Amino acid sequence: MTCMTFLDCPVARYTSCVGVYTGLAMLSFLIILLCTRSVDDNIRTSCADLPSSLMAFFKHTLNKEQLLLIPFTLAIELMKSVFKSDYAKWFVVCPLGIKWLPYVTAMYAVFELTSCMASSWLVERFGWRVTLNTVMVLEFGFLCALLVWIRSTDMSWFSFFVPSMHGVHISIVNSLLPAFVGAVFPGELSVALVQQIMWLTFGAVLSFVTSALMCFAVKLYVTIALFSVSFVGLNIELFVMRRKQEYERKGNILLQDQAKAA
Questions:
Q1: Any stretches that span the bilayer, and where are they (predicted)?
Q2: Is the confidence at residue 94, as pLDDT, over 70?
Q3: Alpha-carbon span 147 to 225, nearest angstrom
């Protein structure tokens, strides 16, 4: 099949859409970075401040703690793509029929909404480490189920159970991500949040590319590998954050003892 124009070619049209999406996303990063710089610096910003804002942005990219969070942020959007496109197509529509898709989506939405409402309570009750590791284990169960699941109409209940695990993970991670970034980077909140938005967008672009270039099985292996790396990086970050909090607590106690002695 010959293409009469550039956009008649599916690959060219797809590449153009990804390019426009990425370009507009980069423009939005600059606007958000410029507008939110005053949150940390307590100053009124203008276009003249853009170079210094970009320098702070790229400097933050090389931060060791930020590098640990990049796989975690990328994996969020990639796993959203696995559920919304691949899971819905291969594990709901094909074995059960398209009429079951609204019911599965409704079950997913119920668990997502409930988990989002309970996310702040979970962190207050159990802490960052237990909460985030629990939802990561649930998401790993979701991916493993897709890996070994033999699709059959006799296991229609499984089509409802599996996305509930994904709904719990996505809702809690999305709702807690800004607060977690604030806890990790208390003095660089605006730049850190823009970083997370950027990597979330790149994760969406990565999901588009993998969907076009890979079959579902290969994409699932790539997702599991990225998820495993993000799990390790997240736990290292949680360990570092806990050590910092312990040092700060000991420092505060020491200052209080010195004040009482004086």
A1: 12-35, 103-123, 130-150, 156-185, 197-214, 220-240
A2: yes
A3: 13
3-class DSSP state for residue 63? coil
Of 238, 240, 246, 242, which Cα lies nearest the Cα of 135?
Answer: 238
What is the Cα–Cα distance from 84 to 69, expressed in whole angstroms? 23
Four-point Cα dihedral 138, 144, 146, 147, nearest 10: 170
202 closest CA partner among 54, 83, 26: 26
Pair 202, 4: CB distance under 8 Å: no
Of 64-78, 99-113, 137-151, 217-231, minimum mean pLDDT range: 137-151
**Amino acid at site 207:** S
The alpha carbon of residue 186 and the mean position of all alpha carbons in its chain are separated, in whole angstroms, by 20
Fold of 67-261: Growth Hormone; Chain: A; (1.20.1250)
Say what the pLDDT of residue 43 is: 45
